Protein backbone atom coordinates (compact mmCIF):
# COMPACT_ATOMS: atom_id res chain seq x y z
CA UNK A 1 0.00 0.00 0.00
CA UNK A 2 1.31 3.42 -0.95
CA UNK A 3 2.47 5.72 1.85
CA UNK A 4 2.04 9.45 1.37
CA UNK A 5 4.90 11.62 2.64
CA UNK A 6 2.66 13.75 4.84
CA UNK A 7 0.64 10.93 6.42
CA UNK A 8 3.02 10.21 9.29
CA UNK A 9 3.65 13.87 10.34
CA UNK A 10 -0.08 14.51 10.13
CA UNK A 11 -0.73 11.50 12.35
CA UNK A 12 1.79 12.80 14.86
CA UNK A 13 0.16 16.22 14.83
CA UNK A 14 -3.25 14.67 15.44
CA UNK A 15 -1.86 12.58 18.30
CA UNK A 16 -0.17 15.63 19.81
CA UNK A 17 -3.37 17.66 19.50
CA UNK A 18 -5.41 14.91 21.17
CA UNK A 19 -2.91 14.63 24.02
CA UNK A 20 -2.91 18.40 24.59
CA UNK A 21 -6.71 18.53 24.39
CA UNK A 22 -7.00 15.69 26.88
CA UNK A 23 -4.57 17.42 29.24
CA UNK A 24 -6.49 20.70 29.04
CA UNK A 25 -9.75 18.92 29.88
CA UNK A 26 -8.16 16.96 32.73
CA UNK A 27 -9.05 19.46 35.45
CA UNK A 28 -10.73 18.81 38.83
CA UNK A 29 -14.20 20.03 37.80
CA UNK A 30 -17.37 18.06 38.50
CA UNK A 31 -19.48 19.19 35.55
CA UNK A 32 -18.58 17.81 32.08
CA UNK A 33 -19.64 21.12 30.48
CA UNK A 34 -17.25 23.03 32.75
CA UNK A 35 -14.41 20.70 31.75
CA UNK A 36 -15.08 21.36 28.06
CA UNK A 37 -15.27 25.12 28.62
CA UNK A 38 -12.09 24.97 30.70
CA UNK A 39 -10.08 23.69 27.73
CA UNK A 40 -11.15 26.63 25.51
CA UNK A 41 -10.64 29.18 28.27
CA UNK A 42 -7.14 27.95 29.02
CA UNK A 43 -6.19 28.40 25.37
CA UNK A 44 -7.74 31.90 25.41
CA UNK A 45 -5.85 32.89 28.56
CA UNK A 46 -2.52 31.70 27.17
CA UNK A 47 -3.22 33.55 23.91
CA UNK A 48 -4.08 36.84 25.63
CA UNK A 49 -1.29 36.49 28.17
CA UNK A 50 1.32 36.22 25.41
CA UNK A 51 0.02 38.28 22.48
CA UNK A 52 -1.02 41.45 24.36
CA UNK A 53 2.38 42.08 26.03
CA UNK A 54 4.17 41.16 22.80
CA UNK A 55 2.01 43.59 20.80
CA UNK A 56 2.67 46.47 23.20
CA UNK A 57 6.40 45.63 23.24
CA UNK A 58 6.50 45.95 19.45
CA UNK A 59 4.79 49.35 19.66
CA UNK A 60 7.26 50.51 22.30
CA UNK A 61 10.18 49.31 20.21
CA UNK A 62 8.87 51.30 17.25
CA UNK A 63 8.38 54.38 19.47
CA UNK A 64 4.71 54.50 18.50
CA UNK A 65 3.33 55.15 22.02
CA UNK A 66 2.47 58.60 23.29
CA UNK A 67 3.66 59.27 26.87
CA UNK A 68 0.11 59.82 28.22
CA UNK A 69 -0.83 56.25 27.14
CA UNK A 70 1.75 54.56 29.36
CA UNK A 71 -0.67 54.09 32.33
CA UNK A 72 -3.14 52.37 30.00
CA UNK A 73 -0.38 50.14 28.59
CA UNK A 74 0.69 49.19 32.11
CA UNK A 75 -2.91 48.33 33.05
CA UNK A 76 -3.46 46.35 29.85
CA UNK A 77 -0.25 44.34 30.29
CA UNK A 78 -1.14 43.69 33.94
CA UNK A 79 -4.57 42.39 32.90
CA UNK A 80 -2.90 40.19 30.29
CA UNK A 81 -0.45 38.75 32.82
CA UNK A 82 -3.38 38.02 35.15
CA UNK A 83 -4.54 35.60 32.45
CA UNK A 84 -1.73 33.24 33.50
CA UNK A 85 -3.05 33.39 37.08
CA UNK A 86 -6.50 32.55 35.68
CA UNK A 87 -4.94 29.61 33.80
CA UNK A 88 -3.41 28.35 37.06
CA UNK A 89 -6.73 28.73 38.89
CA UNK A 90 -8.50 26.60 36.28
CA UNK A 91 -5.83 23.91 36.61
CA UNK A 92 -6.62 23.90 40.34
CA UNK A 93 -10.37 23.56 39.67
CA UNK A 94 -11.36 27.17 40.52
CA UNK A 95 -13.13 27.95 37.23
CA UNK A 96 -15.51 30.60 38.59
CA UNK A 97 -12.72 32.32 40.49
CA UNK A 98 -10.61 32.41 37.32
CA UNK A 99 -13.45 33.98 35.31
CA UNK A 100 -14.16 36.56 38.03
CA UNK A 101 -10.47 37.54 38.09
CA UNK A 102 -10.32 37.73 34.29
CA UNK A 103 -13.42 39.94 34.03
CA UNK A 104 -12.15 42.19 36.84
CA UNK A 105 -8.77 42.59 35.14
CA UNK A 106 -10.29 43.37 31.75
CA UNK A 107 -12.76 45.90 33.14
CA UNK A 108 -10.02 47.51 35.22
CA UNK A 109 -7.80 47.82 32.15
CA UNK A 110 -10.71 49.28 30.15
CA UNK A 111 -11.42 51.80 32.93
CA UNK A 112 -7.82 53.03 32.86
CA UNK A 113 -7.92 53.17 29.07
CA UNK A 114 -11.17 55.15 29.00
CA UNK A 115 -9.90 57.50 31.70
CA UNK A 116 -6.73 58.07 29.67
CA UNK A 117 -8.05 58.35 26.13
CA UNK A 118 -11.77 58.92 26.50
CA UNK A 119 -14.33 56.64 24.86
CA UNK A 120 -12.69 53.95 22.68
CA UNK A 121 -14.47 52.57 19.66
CA UNK A 122 -12.91 49.08 19.90
CA UNK A 123 -15.26 47.06 22.11
CA UNK A 124 -13.69 43.60 21.67
CA UNK A 125 -12.43 43.22 25.24
CA UNK A 126 -15.66 44.53 26.75
CA UNK A 127 -17.82 42.16 24.71
CA UNK A 128 -15.51 39.25 25.55
CA UNK A 129 -15.79 39.95 29.27
CA UNK A 130 -19.58 40.28 28.98
CA UNK A 131 -20.02 37.00 27.09
CA UNK A 132 -17.66 34.91 29.26
CA UNK A 133 -19.18 36.23 32.49
CA UNK A 134 -22.67 35.32 31.31
CA UNK A 135 -21.79 31.88 29.96
CA UNK A 136 -19.73 30.73 32.94
CA UNK A 137 -20.95 32.75 35.94
CA UNK A 138 -24.62 33.03 34.97
CA UNK A 139 -27.26 35.63 34.21
CA UNK A 140 -26.76 37.62 37.39
CA UNK A 141 -23.08 38.11 36.62
CA UNK A 142 -24.02 39.08 33.06
CA UNK A 143 -26.13 42.02 34.24
CA UNK A 144 -23.54 43.05 36.83
CA UNK A 145 -20.90 43.26 34.10
CA UNK A 146 -23.38 45.19 31.93
CA UNK A 147 -23.74 47.84 34.64
CA UNK A 148 -19.97 47.93 35.16
CA UNK A 149 -19.47 48.48 31.43
CA UNK A 150 -21.84 51.44 31.57
CA UNK A 151 -19.70 52.76 34.41
CA UNK A 152 -16.59 52.37 32.25
CA UNK A 153 -18.29 54.32 29.45
CA UNK A 154 -19.20 57.07 31.92
CA UNK A 155 -15.55 57.22 32.97
CA UNK A 156 -14.57 57.69 29.33
CA UNK A 157 -17.19 60.38 28.76
CA UNK A 158 -16.15 62.17 31.93
CA UNK A 159 -12.54 62.08 30.78
CA UNK A 160 -13.54 63.52 27.41
CA UNK A 161 -15.54 66.30 29.06
CA UNK A 162 -12.65 67.19 31.32
CA UNK A 163 -10.08 67.35 28.52
CA UNK A 164 -12.15 69.03 25.80
CA UNK A 165 -11.85 72.80 25.86
CA UNK A 166 -14.94 73.12 23.76
CA UNK A 167 -17.28 71.95 26.49
CA UNK A 168 -20.46 72.49 24.53
CA UNK A 169 -19.20 70.27 21.76
CA UNK A 170 -18.06 67.66 24.30
CA UNK A 171 -21.46 67.63 25.99
CA UNK A 172 -23.14 67.27 22.62
CA UNK A 173 -20.81 64.37 21.76
CA UNK A 174 -21.48 62.72 25.12
CA UNK A 175 -25.23 63.03 24.62
CA UNK A 176 -24.82 61.02 21.43
CA UNK A 177 -22.31 58.44 22.67
CA UNK A 178 -23.96 57.50 25.97
CA UNK A 179 -27.36 56.44 24.53
CA UNK A 180 -25.56 54.70 21.68
CA UNK A 181 -23.34 52.66 24.00
CA UNK A 182 -26.24 52.00 26.37
CA UNK A 183 -28.47 50.65 23.60
CA UNK A 184 -25.65 48.57 22.08
CA UNK A 185 -24.72 47.01 25.42
CA UNK A 186 -28.37 46.49 26.35
CA UNK A 187 -29.27 44.70 23.11
CA UNK A 188 -26.20 42.46 23.30
CA UNK A 189 -26.84 41.73 26.99
CA UNK A 190 -30.49 40.87 26.34
CA UNK A 191 -29.55 38.51 23.50
CA UNK A 192 -26.90 36.84 25.66
CA UNK A 193 -29.32 36.65 28.60
CA UNK A 194 -32.01 34.86 26.60
CA UNK A 195 -29.48 32.61 24.85
CA UNK A 196 -27.83 31.65 28.13
CA UNK A 197 -31.22 31.06 29.78
CA UNK A 198 -32.34 28.85 26.88
CA UNK A 199 -29.02 26.97 26.94
CA UNK A 200 -29.17 26.36 30.68
CA UNK A 201 -32.81 25.27 30.48
CA UNK A 202 -31.96 22.87 27.67
CA UNK A 203 -29.02 21.50 29.67
CA UNK A 204 -31.20 21.11 32.76
CA UNK A 205 -33.87 19.29 30.76
CA UNK A 206 -31.24 17.07 29.15
CA UNK A 207 -29.74 16.28 32.54
CA UNK A 208 -33.19 15.52 33.96
CA UNK A 209 -33.95 13.22 31.02
CA UNK A 210 -30.60 11.52 31.51
CA UNK A 211 -31.35 11.00 35.20
CA UNK A 212 -34.80 9.59 34.39
CA UNK A 213 -33.27 7.32 31.77
CA UNK A 214 -30.68 6.04 34.25
CA UNK A 215 -33.42 5.36 36.79
CA UNK A 216 -35.51 3.56 34.17
CA UNK A 217 -32.49 1.49 33.13
CA UNK A 218 -31.83 0.53 36.74
CA UNK A 219 -35.49 -0.41 37.18
CA UNK A 220 -35.37 -2.41 33.97
CA UNK A 221 -32.23 -4.24 35.11
CA UNK A 222 -33.85 -4.95 38.47
CA UNK A 223 -37.02 -6.22 36.80
CA UNK A 224 -34.92 -8.30 34.41
CA UNK A 225 -33.05 -9.85 37.33
CA UNK A 226 -36.35 -10.64 39.06
CA UNK A 227 -37.72 -12.22 35.88
CA UNK A 228 -34.63 -14.37 35.57
CA UNK A 229 -34.94 -15.52 39.18
CA UNK A 230 -38.61 -16.31 38.58
CA UNK A 231 -37.63 -18.30 35.51
CA UNK A 232 -35.03 -20.16 37.57
CA UNK A 233 -37.64 -21.12 40.13
CA UNK A 234 -40.02 -22.22 37.39
CA UNK A 235 -37.30 -24.28 35.71
CA UNK A 236 -36.29 -25.75 39.07
CA UNK A 237 -39.88 -26.82 39.65
CA UNK A 238 -39.98 -28.49 36.24
CA UNK A 239 -36.76 -30.32 37.05
CA UNK A 240 -38.08 -31.51 40.39
CA UNK A 241 -40.06 -34.42 38.95
CA UNK A 242 -37.04 -35.72 37.07
CA UNK A 243 -34.82 -35.25 40.10
CA UNK A 244 -37.35 -37.08 42.29
CA UNK A 245 -37.40 -39.95 39.80
CA UNK A 246 -33.60 -40.14 39.84
CA UNK A 247 -33.53 -39.98 43.62
CA UNK A 248 -36.03 -42.80 43.79
CA UNK A 249 -33.71 -44.89 41.62
CA UNK A 250 -30.71 -43.92 43.76
CA UNK A 251 -32.51 -44.81 47.00
CA UNK A 252 -33.67 -48.11 45.51
CA UNK A 253 -30.09 -48.84 44.51
CA UNK A 254 -28.79 -48.00 47.98
CA UNK A 255 -31.52 -50.17 49.52
CA UNK A 256 -30.56 -53.06 47.26
CA UNK A 257 -26.89 -52.76 48.20
CA UNK A 258 -27.83 -52.57 51.89
CA UNK A 259 -29.88 -55.77 51.53
CA UNK A 260 -26.76 -57.63 50.41
CA UNK A 261 -26.00 -58.38 54.05
CA UNK A 262 -29.06 -60.65 54.12
CA UNK A 263 -27.94 -62.50 51.02
CA UNK A 264 -24.46 -63.35 52.25
CA UNK A 265 -24.05 -67.10 52.60
CA UNK A 266 -23.59 -67.78 56.32
CA UNK A 267 -21.57 -70.86 55.49
CA UNK A 268 -19.05 -68.88 53.45
CA UNK A 269 -15.69 -68.10 54.92
CA UNK A 270 -15.11 -64.80 56.71
CA UNK A 271 -13.09 -63.31 53.85
CA UNK A 272 -15.85 -63.95 51.31
CA UNK A 273 -18.50 -62.45 53.60
CA UNK A 274 -16.27 -59.43 54.25
CA UNK A 275 -15.66 -58.84 50.52
CA UNK A 276 -19.40 -59.02 49.80
CA UNK A 277 -20.08 -56.38 52.44
CA UNK A 278 -17.25 -54.18 51.11
CA UNK A 279 -18.69 -54.40 47.59
CA UNK A 280 -22.13 -53.50 48.90
CA UNK A 281 -20.76 -50.49 50.81
CA UNK A 282 -18.88 -49.31 47.72
CA UNK A 283 -22.13 -49.50 45.78
CA UNK A 284 -23.90 -47.45 48.46
CA UNK A 285 -21.07 -44.89 48.35
CA UNK A 286 -21.22 -44.59 44.55
CA UNK A 287 -25.01 -44.14 44.63
CA UNK A 288 -24.79 -41.50 47.37
CA UNK A 289 -22.13 -39.62 45.37
CA UNK A 290 -24.44 -39.56 42.39
CA UNK A 291 -27.23 -38.19 44.58
CA UNK A 292 -24.99 -35.47 46.03
CA UNK A 293 -23.87 -34.44 42.54
CA UNK A 294 -27.47 -34.20 41.42
CA UNK A 295 -28.54 -32.02 44.37
CA UNK A 296 -25.42 -29.84 44.04
CA UNK A 297 -26.23 -29.10 40.40
CA UNK A 298 -29.82 -28.26 41.24
CA UNK A 299 -28.86 -25.99 44.17
CA UNK A 300 -26.21 -24.20 42.12
CA UNK A 301 -28.70 -23.54 39.35
CA UNK A 302 -31.47 -22.30 41.67
CA UNK A 303 -29.25 -20.10 43.87
CA UNK A 304 -29.84 -16.32 43.26
CA UNK A 305 -26.69 -14.82 41.76
CA UNK A 306 -25.93 -11.39 40.27
CA UNK A 307 -25.33 -11.23 36.53
CA UNK A 308 -21.66 -11.73 35.69
CA UNK A 309 -20.46 -11.54 32.12
CA UNK A 310 -17.64 -14.01 31.56
CA UNK A 311 -16.00 -16.04 28.82
CA UNK A 312 -17.95 -19.29 28.48
CA UNK A 313 -16.89 -22.29 26.40
CA UNK A 314 -20.18 -23.38 24.84
CA UNK A 315 -19.00 -26.97 24.34
CA UNK A 316 -17.96 -27.40 27.96
CA UNK A 317 -21.14 -25.67 29.14
CA UNK A 318 -23.29 -28.09 27.12
CA UNK A 319 -21.43 -31.07 28.55
CA UNK A 320 -22.03 -29.80 32.09
CA UNK A 321 -25.69 -29.02 31.39
CA UNK A 322 -26.53 -32.35 29.75
CA UNK A 323 -27.58 -34.11 33.02
CA UNK A 324 -30.05 -31.31 33.79
CA UNK A 325 -31.36 -31.42 30.22
CA UNK A 326 -31.99 -35.13 30.69
CA UNK A 327 -34.02 -34.37 33.82
CA UNK A 328 -36.24 -32.05 31.75
CA UNK A 329 -37.46 -34.85 29.45
CA UNK A 330 -39.14 -38.13 30.18
CA UNK A 331 -37.66 -41.52 29.27
CA UNK A 332 -39.55 -41.55 25.96
CA UNK A 333 -37.61 -38.54 24.61
CA UNK A 334 -34.21 -39.19 23.09
CA UNK A 335 -31.73 -36.41 23.90
CA UNK A 336 -28.67 -35.79 21.72
CA UNK A 337 -26.09 -33.11 22.59
CA UNK A 338 -23.16 -32.53 20.22
CA UNK A 339 -20.65 -29.76 19.64
CA UNK A 340 -17.67 -29.09 17.41
CA UNK A 341 -14.23 -29.98 18.78
CA UNK A 342 -12.10 -27.18 20.16
CA UNK A 343 -13.07 -24.10 22.16
CA UNK A 344 -16.30 -22.25 21.34
CA UNK A 345 -15.93 -19.12 23.50
CA UNK A 346 -18.62 -16.47 23.96
CA UNK A 347 -19.11 -13.60 26.42
CA UNK A 348 -22.27 -14.12 28.46
CA UNK A 349 -23.63 -14.73 31.95
CA UNK A 350 -23.21 -18.47 32.49
CA UNK A 351 -26.28 -19.03 34.68
CA UNK A 352 -28.54 -17.07 32.34
CA UNK A 353 -27.13 -19.06 29.42
CA UNK A 354 -28.05 -22.32 31.16
CA UNK A 355 -31.50 -20.97 31.99
CA UNK A 356 -32.10 -20.01 28.35
CA UNK A 357 -31.32 -23.53 27.13
CA UNK A 358 -33.45 -25.12 29.84
CA UNK A 359 -36.39 -22.86 28.94
CA UNK A 360 -36.18 -23.87 25.28
CA UNK A 361 -35.86 -27.52 26.31
CA UNK A 362 -38.94 -27.17 28.51
CA UNK A 363 -40.96 -25.86 25.56
CA UNK A 364 -39.70 -28.79 23.49
CA UNK A 365 -40.82 -31.21 26.21
CA UNK A 366 -44.34 -29.78 26.04
CA UNK A 367 -44.26 -30.22 22.25
CA UNK A 368 -43.33 -33.91 22.65
CA UNK A 369 -46.27 -35.36 24.64
CA UNK A 370 -45.84 -38.78 23.01
CA UNK A 371 -42.04 -38.79 23.04
CA UNK A 372 -39.62 -38.05 20.26
CA UNK A 373 -36.23 -36.50 19.78
CA UNK A 374 -34.52 -33.32 21.01
CA UNK A 375 -31.14 -32.32 19.57
CA UNK A 376 -28.70 -29.64 20.70
CA UNK A 377 -25.64 -28.79 18.62
CA UNK A 378 -23.00 -26.05 18.68
CA UNK A 379 -20.46 -25.02 16.05
CA UNK A 380 -18.41 -22.05 14.83
CA UNK A 381 -19.90 -20.31 11.77
CA UNK A 382 -18.45 -17.15 10.16
CA UNK A 383 -16.81 -15.81 13.30
CA UNK A 384 -19.85 -16.62 15.44
CA UNK A 385 -20.95 -19.48 17.65
CA UNK A 386 -24.18 -21.05 16.43
CA UNK A 387 -26.45 -23.11 18.66
CA UNK A 388 -29.23 -25.23 17.18
CA UNK A 389 -31.98 -26.70 19.35
CA UNK A 390 -34.37 -28.91 17.42
CA UNK A 391 -37.32 -31.11 18.33
CA UNK A 392 -39.56 -33.27 16.13
CA UNK A 393 -42.69 -32.44 18.08
CA UNK A 394 -46.00 -30.83 17.24
CA UNK A 395 -44.55 -27.56 15.94
CA UNK A 396 -46.51 -24.31 15.93
CA UNK A 397 -48.53 -22.26 13.45
CA UNK A 398 -47.12 -19.06 11.93
CA UNK A 399 -49.35 -16.81 14.05
CA UNK A 400 -47.88 -18.31 17.22
CA UNK A 401 -44.30 -18.33 15.89
CA UNK A 402 -44.40 -14.58 15.27
CA UNK A 403 -45.35 -13.87 18.90
CA UNK A 404 -43.31 -16.36 20.91
CA UNK A 405 -40.76 -13.75 22.05
CA UNK A 406 -43.43 -11.38 23.37
CA UNK A 407 -43.46 -11.14 27.19
CA UNK A 408 -46.36 -12.98 28.85
CA UNK A 409 -47.44 -14.61 25.59
CA UNK A 410 -48.18 -18.28 26.21
CA UNK A 411 -50.24 -21.01 24.59
CA UNK A 412 -50.21 -23.13 27.75
CA UNK A 413 -53.22 -23.41 30.05
CA UNK A 414 -53.55 -20.85 32.83
CA UNK A 415 -51.19 -21.63 35.68
CA UNK A 416 -48.91 -23.77 33.52
CA UNK A 417 -46.44 -21.05 32.53
CA UNK A 418 -45.62 -17.36 32.79
CA UNK A 419 -44.93 -16.70 29.11
CA UNK A 420 -41.58 -15.15 30.05
CA UNK A 421 -39.07 -17.89 29.25
CA UNK A 422 -38.53 -17.10 25.57
CA UNK A 423 -38.83 -13.34 26.17
CA UNK A 424 -35.97 -13.58 28.67
CA UNK A 425 -33.98 -15.72 26.21
CA UNK A 426 -34.47 -13.15 23.45
CA UNK A 427 -33.38 -10.32 25.76
CA UNK A 428 -30.30 -12.25 26.89
CA UNK A 429 -29.19 -13.02 23.32
CA UNK A 430 -29.77 -9.41 22.23
CA UNK A 431 -27.77 -8.03 25.18
CA UNK A 432 -24.90 -10.36 24.22
CA UNK A 433 -24.90 -8.94 20.68
CA UNK A 434 -26.40 -12.04 19.07
CA UNK A 435 -29.58 -13.11 17.33
CA UNK A 436 -32.19 -15.81 17.85
CA UNK A 437 -34.49 -17.19 15.15
CA UNK A 438 -37.09 -19.92 15.12
CA UNK A 439 -38.46 -22.11 12.34
CA UNK A 440 -41.47 -24.30 12.93
CA UNK A 441 -43.77 -26.45 10.85
CA UNK A 442 -46.93 -27.86 12.44
CA UNK A 443 -46.63 -31.62 12.80
CA UNK A 444 -42.91 -31.61 11.94
CA UNK A 445 -41.12 -29.81 14.75
CA UNK A 446 -39.36 -26.62 15.78
CA UNK A 447 -35.77 -25.41 15.41
CA UNK A 448 -34.20 -22.55 17.37
CA UNK A 449 -31.03 -21.00 15.90
CA UNK A 450 -29.00 -18.85 18.25
CA UNK A 451 -25.95 -16.95 17.01
CA UNK A 452 -23.59 -15.26 19.46
CA UNK A 453 -20.37 -13.35 18.75
CA UNK A 454 -17.26 -15.41 19.25
CA UNK A 455 -15.14 -13.98 22.06
CA UNK A 456 -12.34 -11.89 20.59
CA UNK A 457 -9.80 -13.12 23.11
CA UNK A 458 -10.00 -16.76 24.13
CA UNK A 459 -9.36 -16.97 27.84
CA UNK A 460 -6.91 -19.38 29.36
CA UNK A 461 -8.39 -22.74 30.43
CA UNK A 462 -8.60 -21.60 34.04
CA UNK A 463 -10.55 -18.51 32.96
CA UNK A 464 -13.17 -20.21 30.79
CA UNK A 465 -16.33 -21.07 32.68
CA UNK A 466 -17.35 -24.71 32.31
From TrEMBL:
GO molecular function ontology, one term from the record: protein histidine kinase activity
Histidine kinase domain span: 242-456
EC number: 2.7.13.3
Coiled coil: 196-233
Catalysed reactions, as listed in the record: ATP + protein L-histidine = ADP + protein N-phospho-L-histidine
Transmembrane spans: 38-57, 69-90, 97-121, 141-162, 174-192
Pfam families referenced in this protein's UniProt entry, alphabetically: HATPase_c
This protein's UniProt keywords: Coiled coil, Kinase, Membrane, Transferase, Transmembrane, Transmembrane helix
InterPro entries (UniProt xref): HATPase_C_sf, HATPase_dom, His_kinase_dom, Sig_transdc_His_kin-like_C
Protein name as catalogued: histidine kinase
Annotated source species: Luteimonas terrae
